[in-house]
Design goal:
The complex is a heterodimer of chains A (462) and B (71).
Chain A lengths: L11 H9 L5 H19 L2 E4 L1 H16 L11 E5 L26 H8 L3 E6 L11 E2 L3 E2 L15 H9 L4 E6 L5 H7 L2 E4 L19 E6 L2 H11 L29 E5 L8 H16 L3 E5 L7 H23 L6 H10 L4 H23 L3 E5 L15 H9 L1 H5 L3 E8 L5 E7 L5 H15 L8
Parallel strand pairs in A: 2-3, 2-6, 9-10, 9-11
Antiparallel strand pairs in A: 1-3, 4-5, 6-8, 7-8, 7-12, 11-13, 12-13
Helix pairs in contact in A: 2-3, 5-6, 7-14, 9-10, 9-11
Chain B lengths: L5 H12 L5 H23 L11 H14 L1
Helix pairs in contact in B: 1-2
Classes of the chains: A alpha/beta (462), B mainly alpha (71).
Chain lengths: 462, 71
């Protein structure tokens, strides 16, 4: 097997400079990614659909424009992947399901419209847990996506293909979605950066819903800077999505760089327990690193977060049932067993409990905002352990994963999951950096500072 | 029409709400609930695709801030 092209080593920030300077051709770059997909993706299964010819066409168009001096921005000519929950006009969009196994949308999602207008090249549609309703991406219809660090382990989910593609180098940047942790869990399992921005910051038009009031669409990337660059493209009000926010969109790269002197950061007590020894050790080391950067690291308490994942799951399951109700009645056998079980269980959630969970979200956010009065950001591990083995039915995803990520879907706060190191078994470990609503600038500033101080992590050998 | 029996109504009330319906109430509930469930199914026939529920994040933010200030 040929060695992977050195073009795959560049993150989006570096690529954008080289593409603009015409040191790299978008055509050459796209072909390098397509070659990589061909070389490794049979083992990883990060893609459901590879749009090779369309990608080459987009790359040629980008090359023509850049050569003529018409550079569109940092994503011009950059090869990306989209979670197969995001509509792409004329391109199969399955939702990771059998039920939509032949669905071809007649319109684009806004995230793709914006990335396309920014000149991005679409490599294909990425694998996911069926209908985004799970955290393993062990997909019975489109193939089991595997963790590039250990092919016997899950890449996390539901945006498992998006996370795996980043570290397997089958895409330069990807889009995922997050309803209970589905950007941050794969970012944590696969050792890359996952940004769940503030709810309503990015349009959800043309993205299949799981839970209307908890769904987010956002970047999974190699670095915090790349996440900021991607958010610059996709954030902002969308008239097609009435829930999208009219908050002004700043330049999310404007506060990158520098240290954390004078900053107070709060470790959430209720989420800093029940973790494995490697996670605890890596988290403690990360806190020390933040201290070395000048931050004052303190403990904060958010008591309502003890039941945070329960609140998220009640809302999530009730809203998901509303979306799936007619399919579960008509085609129950076409669901994977785990997703069918979740939908069936949802039938026991009462309207009263749903309303109470929605009310509790207010209390959770109030307590988080109180903690953020005196602290720039909050911190917590991303999950209790490193990635579990594929098919491990004894692994409790709620207790070990959603417990850490779910509360921030309920509060809608911006969160980035960022790697803190590798375990003794060579598996990625991560932490979450959580901010005030619409303060992605501070979250990304802290993530970027930590990442530069931490240094690069070894890539998986595939 | 949805055919709820008194037995089902009693089981749902007991198991979901910890509430014991009398036999007489259970008959009435079964009849009324059956009618309501049947009517509510019509909501499923409405074309609501792409229509968002009225959950506003600004409302969540405002209420959380009010609670925070209340202390």
């Amino acid at each position: 097997m040929a060695n992977p092209s050195p073009l795959l080593d560049f993150d989006v920030a570096a690529l954008s400079q080289k593409l603009r300077a015409k040191e790299i051709s978008p055509v050459e770059l796209t072909q390098a990614y397509l070659d990589r997909i061909e070389a490794v993706d049979e083992r990883i299964i990060s893609y459901i659909t590879v749009t090779a010819e369309a990608a080459r066409t987009m790359a040629r168009a980008a090359e023509k424009e850049i050569t003529a001096g018409r550079w569109r921005g940092p994503f011009h000519g950059v090869p990306i992947g989209l979670k197969d929950l995001c509509y792409t006009k004329g391109i199969l969009t399955t939702g990771g399901s059998k039920i939509l196994g032949e669905f071809v949308p007649n319109r684009d999602s806004t995230v793709w419209t914006r990335l396309s207008e920014a000149g991005a090249v679409l490599l294909g549609k990425l694998n996911l847990h069926e209908f985004a309703y799970g955290a393993s991406t062990d997909n019975p219809h489109w193939g089991t996506c595997r963790n590039p660090y250990d092919l016997d382990r899950i890449p996390g989910g539901s945006s498992g293909g998006s996370g795996a593609a980043i570290v397997a180098r089958t895409a330069a940047a990807t889009i995922g979605t997050d309803t209970g942790g589905s950007i941050r869990i794969p970012a944590a399992c696969c050792g890359c950066v996952g940004l769940k921005q503030t709810w309503s910051r990015v349009s959800r038009y043309g993205v299949m819903p799981l839970s209307d009031s908890l769904d987010h669409t956002g970047p999974i990337t190699r670095t915090a800077r790349d996440a900021a660059l991607m958010l610059n493209v996709i954030a902002g009000y969308d008239p097609n999505d009435a829930t999208s926010s009219r908050e002004p969109v700043p330049d999310y790269t404007s506060r990158l760089g520098g240290d954390l002197k004078g900053m107070r950061v709060g470790v959430i007590r209720e989420l800093n327990s029940g973790v494995s020894e490697p996670v605890a050790r890596a988290f403690t080391a990360a806190l020390k690193q933040l201290g070395a950067l000048g931050a004052a690291v303190e403990e904060v308490s958010i008591p309502s977060f003890v039941e945070g994942s329960l609140v998220t799951m009640v809302v999530l399951m009730a809203e998901a049932l509303e979306f799936h109700e007619h399919w579960i009645r008509e085609r129950p056998g076409d669901y994977g067993a785990d997703v069918r079980s979740l939908i069936e269980t949802s039938m026991t959630i009462t309207a009263v409990n749903y309303i109470r969970a929605q009310r509790e979200r207010n209390l959770m956010l109030a307590e988080a905002l109180a903690a953020l009065q005196d602290h720039a950001v909050l911190l917590a591990p991303s999950q209790a352990t490193a990635a579990p083995r594929i098919g491990d039915r004894s692994y409790d995803m709620i207790a070990n994963m959603v417990r850490f990520t779910g509360p921030f879907n309920a509060t809608g706060q911006p969160v980035v999951s960022i790697p803190t190191g590798l375990s003794g078994e060579g598996l990625p470990l991560s932490m979450q950096i959580i901010g005030k609503p619409f303060d992605e600038l501070t979250v990304l500033h802290v993530a970027d500072a930590y990442e530069r101080a931490r240094g690069p992590l070894p890539l998986p050998k595939i | 029409m949805a055919n709820l029996t008194a037995k089902t109504a009693k089981a749902m009330a007991r198991e979901l709400y910890g509430y014991e319906l009398s036999d007489e109430s259970a008959e009435e509930v079964a009849s009324a609930a059956g009618a309501m469930v049947t009517r509510a199914r019509r909501l499923g026939n409405l074309d609501l695709s792409g229509v968002q529920p009225p959950f506003g994040y600004p409302t969540l933010l405002a209420e959380a801030e009010r609670i925070r200030k209340r202390g």
